[in-house]
């Protein structure tokens, strides 16, 4: 459910989650099992975080129970898993302000004027907001979204295109290999003949070049040529040589990402190198009622893995219950044997 709340009027819920990536989504499941309602805020226009935004079709190999799964498939599965708990999403919004109310609740205000209130706040914002690094090319903005892109969301969109991929890291090489079979023509450009990507990917790219199936340019991009937002060619230049043009109608620029913590840095939390320290019992910050899970947190031995964030979500939910329901006794139950949990999940009939 995606909802824009009335301006300047608080929507009261049990838990507010900042970040709708895989860890934030799984937290909805763990909280839902314990009867807590959740509202999520995310700067992206869809759930899934980096998995959906940066590598929706890229395979992930370390999700338990799935030998291989794409970022979008993982997102879709998590969305199906949390359907019984009917979370509310506030997408395309940034959590801009955090305040402690006299009631003891936390109030979050977004840049769109959405106001949320809850006794528990969970920060699952990954590394913050990831913004692509853009090349310094005059007029680049005029082509963005039509023929200049910084991520591949659907490969079919690039079928039959004349593509120029810029960059020398894993993303540039991965998409070079993945899109080459679909493209009408494909060229890779990098400022030096030395790549930061996996050696196997580099070797496969060079093999395609030697077979005449793609082109490699060791050069810098100097200009874009086209009109109405549509590229026709790129002006490039090799060191010490005259500029020349490469015909292309699509530029995919993979110069990496820059991480911005954004307004979370002003929430009054202690930070460690732009990460939020937590304990490893509850994954609570040093501020009671505020938790941090996933890549945004820091503790000794932290591993930045999705599966680690899932574990952190489960322990966070146990403590959140004690805050949301201070007068209730917490009973630990297994979904495999608890009829009440199975009823919440809508699988009680199947289990019987």
Spell out the key features of this protein.
FAD/NAD(P)-binding domain; 352 residues; five-stranded parallel beta sheet
How would you summarize the topology of this molecule?
Layout: E1 10-12, E2 15-18, H1 22-33, E3 38-42, H2 49-53, E4 59-60, E5 69-70, H3 71-82, E6 88-91, E7 95-100, E8 106-110, E9 115-118, E10 120-123, E11 129-132, E12 148-149, E13 162-166, H4 170-179, E14 185-190, H5 199-210, E15 215-218, E16 220-227, E17 230-237, E18 244-247, E19 250-253, E20 257-260, E21 276-277, E22 290-292, E23 297-298, H6 306-324, H7 339-345, H8 348-351
Parallel strand pairs: 1-9, 2-3, 2-10, 3-6, 10-22, 12-19, 13-14, 13-19, 14-15, 21-23
Antiparallel strand pairs: 4-5, 7-8, 8-9, 11-20, 16-17, 17-18
Helix pairs in contact: 1-3, 1-6, 4-5
Please tally the helical runs, counting DSSP H or I stretches of 4 or more residues.
Answer: 8
Strand order of the largest sheet: 6-3-2-10-22
The average pLDDT value, as a whole number, equals 90
Percent in strands: 25-35%
If you compute it from the alpha carbons, what radius of gyration comes out, rounded to the nearest whole angstrom? 23 Å
Helix content: 10-25%
CATH topology of the largest domain: FAD/NAD(P)-binding domain
Shape: elongated
Structural classification: alpha/beta
Query: Could you list the spans in which at least 5 consecutive residues all have pLDDT below 50?
Result: none
Domain unit count:
2
Sheet with the most strands?
A: 5 strands, parallel
- Distance from N terminus to C terminus (CA atoms, Å) equals 30 Å
- Would you identify the CATH H-level superfamily of the largest domain? FAD/NAD(P)-binding domain
């Amino acid at each position: 459910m995606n909802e824009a709340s009335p301006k300047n009027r608080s929507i009261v819920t049990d838990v507010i989650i900042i970040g709708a990536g895989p860890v934030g989504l799984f937290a909805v499941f763990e909280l839902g099992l314990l009867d807590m309602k959740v509202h999520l805020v995310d700067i992206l226009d869809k759930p899934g975080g980096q998995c959906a935004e940066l590598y929706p079709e890229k395979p992930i190999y370390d999700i338990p129970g799935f030998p291989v799964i794409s970022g979008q498939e993982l997102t879709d599965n998590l969305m199906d898993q949390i359907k019984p708990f009917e979370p509310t999403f506030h997408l395309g919004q940034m959590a801009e302000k955090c305040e402690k109310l006299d009631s003891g609740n936390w109030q979050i205000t977004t840049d769109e004027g959405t106001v949320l209130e809850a006794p528990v706040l969970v920060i699952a914002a990954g590394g913050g907001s990831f913004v692509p690094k853009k090349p310094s090319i005059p007029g680049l903005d005029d082509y963005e979204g039509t023929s200049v892109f910084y991520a591949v969301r659907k490969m079919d969109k690039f079928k039959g295109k004349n593509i120029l991929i810029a960059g020398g890291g894993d993303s540039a090489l991965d998409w070079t290999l993945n899109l080459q079979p679909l493209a009408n023509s494909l060229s890779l450009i990098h400022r030096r003949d030395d790549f930061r990507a996996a050696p196997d990917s580099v070797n496969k790219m060079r093999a395609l070049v030697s077979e005449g199936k793609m082109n490699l340019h060791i050069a810098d991009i100097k200009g874009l040529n086209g009109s109405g937002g549509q590229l026709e060619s790129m002006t490039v230049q090799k060191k010490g040589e005259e500029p020349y043009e490469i015909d292309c109608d699509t530029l995919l620029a993979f110069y990496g990402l820059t991480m911005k913590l954004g307004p979370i840095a002003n929430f009054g939390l202690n930070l460690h190198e732009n990460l939020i320290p937590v304990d490893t019992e509850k994954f609570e910050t040093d501020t009671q009622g505020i938790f941090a899970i996933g890549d945004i947190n820091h503790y000794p031995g932290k591993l930045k893995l999705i599966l680690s964030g899932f574990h952190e979500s489960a322990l966070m939910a146990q403590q959140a219950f004690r805050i949301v329901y201070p007068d209730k006794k917490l009973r630990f139950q297994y979904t495999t044997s608890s009829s009440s949990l199975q009823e919440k999940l809508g699988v009680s009939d199947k289990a019987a």
